[in-house]
Design brief:
Helix 7 runs antiparallel to helix 8. About 3% of the residues have low confidence. Helices cover 64% and strands 3% of the residues. It starts with a helix and ends with a strand. It is built from nine helices and two strands. It is mainly alpha-helical. The protein has a two-stranded antiparallel sheet with strand order 1-2.
Length: 182
């Protein structure tokens, strides 16, 4: 683990709980996509997953709405409890500084995820040598996905107000739940 990674994670989650950004900066967005695994501290990972789920439904991301969403119980305990969340929100940085910290958290996660994928692949090939080519291809794809900049091929979190504010022209085509825009 990179020294001080917990401080960076705290910065990211604290900023999200206090600023409620309309859109997430790229590194924060990637951390949310892989949450809770992208955080070393399971409390921050749990909060990140809740934030991602709430944002996907268009709910505002603030400490009070997150606490209400968790509705006490086990989810609140996983996230460190109300006192932990209150303390997290007392001393935060702005979203731009948190994005810089998110880059460090993301790089740390990529290293851990790469190690995990390679270990899992080695075990899978040892257990099923006839499937080595398929295992290799799947592993390569997952490793490449870690290096891809956000190209819209993963989860995109948009609030309903953002979708309604978008403009479309006659060349745009809607096919079921997909929009083909030029």
């Amino acid at each position: 683990m990179i020294n001080g990674n917990s401080t960076y994670e705290e910065s990211v989650i604290g900023a999200l709980l206090t600023e409620s950004p309309d859109t997430f900066p790229p590194n924060i967005k990637r951390l949310l996509q892989y949450a809770p695994d992208s955080f070393d501290d399971k409390r921050f990972g749990s909060l990140a997953k809740i934030i991602r789920d709430m944002a996907a439904t268009g709910k505002p991301i603030l400490k009070t709405t997150v606490l209400r969403h968790m509705n006490g119980g086990e989810r609140l305990a996983e996230a460190g409890g109300k006192e932990f969340i209150d303390a997290l929100c007392r001393e935060t940085v702005n979203i731009d500084l948190a994005e810089s910290d998110a880059k460090s958290v993301w790089e740390n996660f990529k290293v851990k995820r790469t190690q995990s994928l390679l270990e899992e692949s080695a075990k899978a090939v040892a257990d099923h040598p006839k499937l080595a080519a398929s295992i290799r291809a799947t592993t390569a794809k997952e490793l490449q996905e870690l290096d891809n900049e956000d190209r819209g091929d993963r989860l995109t979190i948009r609030r309903p107000s953002e979708i309604l504010a978008q403009t479309f022209d006659d060349s745009d085509i809607i096919l079921g739940d997909r929009l083909l825009a030029r």
